[in-house]
Amino acid sequence: ATVLVGLGAGLLLLGVAGRLAGRLRLSPIPLYLAAGLLVGEGSPLELAHVRDFIETGAQIGIILLLLMLGLEYSGRELVAGLRSNRAAGVVDLVANATPGVLAAWLLGWGATAAVFLGGITYISSSGIVSKVLAELGRIGNRETPSVLSVLIIEDLVMAIYLPVAAGLLVATGLVDTLVDIGIAAAAVTVAFAVTLLWGEHLSRAVFNPSNELLLLTIMGGALVVAGAAEEIHAPAAVGALLVGIALSGSAADAAKVVLTPLRDLFAAVFFVFFGLQIDLGSLVPALPAAAALAAVTALTKVFTGAWAARRAGIGLPGRLRAGTVLIVRGEFSIILAGLALAGGLEPDIGPLAAAYVLMLATLGPLATRLADPLAFALERNRAVRR
Fold first, then answer.
1. Separation between Cα atoms, residue 272 and residue 39, nearest integer Å
2. Does residue 134 carry a pLDDT above 70?
3. CA–CA dist 164, 235 (Å, integer)
4. pTM for the whole structure
5. For 40, which of 103, 178, 271, 351 is 20 to 30 Å away at the CA?
6. Low-confidence winner among 27-31, 175-179, 370-374 (lowest mean pLDDT)
7. What's the per-residue H, E or C state across the chain?
8. Residue 353 pLDDT greater than 70, yes or no
9. Rounded to the nearest 5°, which phi and psi values hold at 329?
């Protein structure tokens, strides 16, 4: 009874937080993180008796997040996106990963921590971006393809970046590091090869008109591959990502329908679990560094999106919309920070990442709503000067 009541109370708390975020027209991720902080160790609302369930649910949440991401793109789409938008991808990587790497150096952290913090500052939240675009009715805007091209390349980079970063955590020397990176690269290559050469056959074998059988097959396969990835010291989530990439066509389309509710439930649990691991006392000292990093990387993301939109011939309002919508950081920044904490890396990276995501997941949607008024004011000022 105690476990059921505690679990039910936790889910109700998340439901209330999600409703509040909807009324405020914000992403619920900051509120889920805040909920985890509120029920963590030392809190009067501590949910210690359901912590094991939350931890297991969080692992499933990571697997579902990356599985669903992989289902969004086929290998051919990822390769085509890389070829046509590689310049924007390079600018995005350099402009937004560099501040994180420099911040780690200024904080006196090691090279591996710098790799992780660079990834945390680099990648936008594709989930929040897509939700904001839909809410604001901008899916059909001329600048939206530029935004999506940046997100596709970021997702492709993450497919390689995550296993490489995880390899750095477990490697004990240069040889081990190179071996783990080689294994990660080989796994990604095999996934793309399977998708490009046999993706249609695999999808036909997996597909079933019964939602029940489709769900059992895909979830079972993803969990088996995720477990196998753990055995070779790669993150389970990366294995799930490769499964998603390998599926396409009708199997992927049907899987999105049956898996979306599960992803939303367990992703919320994942964000709560991340918050549970953060000591509120350590969050406050991290605020100045997180605020400085958020300010710098918000500007670099605006530059990235505006530059990509300008190359596509988009005017100033569209450039600002493209830049501001990319400001948000979310699930992948938290996943990277969670991997770093689980691997015993720099302990301060958790509080810093939590504060950083809280700030930008809140600021991003607000900034993109102000993009049109700001562009109008800038153009009017330019006209007055003329």
1. 9
2. no
3. 10
4. 0.73
5. 103
6. 175-179
7. CHHHHHHHHHHHHHHHHHHHHHHHCCCCHHHHHHHHHHCCCCCCCCCHHHHHHHHHHHHHHHHHHHHHHHHHCCHHHHHHHHHHCHHHHHHHHHHHHHHHHHHHHHCCCCHHHHHHHHHHHHCCCHHHHHHHHHHCCCCCCCCHHHHHHHHHHHHHHHHHHHHHHHHHHHCCCHHHHHHHHHHHHHHHHHHHHHHHHHHHHHHHHHCCCCHHHHHHHHHHHHHHHHHHHHHCCCCHHHHHHHHHHHCCHHHHHHHHHHHHHHHHHHHHHHHHHHHHCCCHHHHHHHHHHHHHHHHHHHHHHHHHHHHHHHHCCCCHHHHHHHHHHCCCCCHHHHHHHHHHHHCCCCCCHHHHHHHHHHHHHHHHHHHHHCHHHHHHHHHHHHHHHC
8. yes
9. -115, 155
Q: Give me 89's structure tokens.
A: 């991808």
